[in-house]
């Protein structure tokens, strides 16, 4: 186990060992101040458990982001495009496939059949029943307009 501050060590296990050591130090201080040792230890271990769960959540999010980057890079092989998609950007002229890779699948789609083209309105960010903060209009699977509220 390393005595380096949390976050400086290389593994989650080292961070948890450091955290456990800090928990015991705080419990000793509480006991020296006359507080109930068991109450102090219980509170501190609950805090340690919460922090441990937060490490797992942060690690999972980072892993998911890295997997998404690897998927997009393998599919497009263009750094600027992959960066735009990772930043969840959208633009006029973007294809439906790129839009789905950027923002994910829409919450709802309105299909409007016209004589000479297919128009779809992809709706994102639901804000109540049939209310959406972002509506993107696609003609023949290409972004032509959008409306963003709030």
Describe the structure.
The protein is α+β, with helices and mostly antiparallel strands and 150 residues long. It has 2 domains: 12-76; 90-148, no CATH class. The chain has helices at residues 12-32, 37-76, 79-86, 96-103; strands at residues 108-113, 118-126, 132-139, 142-148. The protein has a 4-stranded antiparallel beta sheet, covered by helices on one side. A hairpin with a 4-residue loop joins β1 and β2. The chain starts with 11 loop residues before the first helix and ends with a strand. Residues 1-10 have low confidence and may be disordered.
Task: Describe this protein with a few key phrases.
single chain, alpha+beta, 4 helices, disordered N terminus
Helix content: 40-55%
Task: State the low-pLDDT regions, or none.
Answer: 1-10
Mean pLDDT: 81
Measured between the Cα atoms of the first and last residue, the distance is: 49 Å
Strand order of the largest sheet: 1-2-3-4
Strand composition percent:
15-25%
The secondary structure category is alpha+beta
The SSE string, one letter per element, is: HHHHEEEE
Instruction: Tell me the number of structural domains.
Output: 2
Q: Assembly type of the shown chains?
A: single chain
Rg measurement, Å: 25 Å
Q: Describe the largest sheet.
A: 4 strands, antiparallel
Shape descriptor reads: elongated
**Number of E-state strands:** 4
Tally of contiguous helical segments: 4
């Amino acid at each position: 186990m390393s005595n380096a501050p949390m976050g400086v060590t290389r593994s989650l296990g080292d961070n948890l060992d450091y955290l456990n050591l800090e928990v015991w130090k705080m419990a000793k201080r509480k006991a020296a101040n006359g507080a109930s040792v068991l109450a102090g230890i219980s509170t501190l271990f609950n805090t340690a458990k919460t922090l441990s769960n937060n490490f797992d959540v942060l690690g999972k999010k980072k892993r998911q982001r890295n997997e998404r980057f690897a998927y997009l890079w393998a599919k497009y092989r263009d750094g600027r495009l992959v960066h735009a998609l990772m930043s969840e950007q959208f633009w006029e002229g973007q294809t439906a496939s790129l839009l789905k890779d950027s923002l994910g699948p829409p919450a709802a789609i309105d299909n409007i059949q016209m004589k000479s083209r297919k128009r779809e309105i992809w709706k994102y960010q639901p804000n109540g029943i049939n209310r959406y903060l972002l509506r993107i209009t696609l003609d023949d699977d290409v972004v032509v307009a959008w409306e963003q509220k709030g």
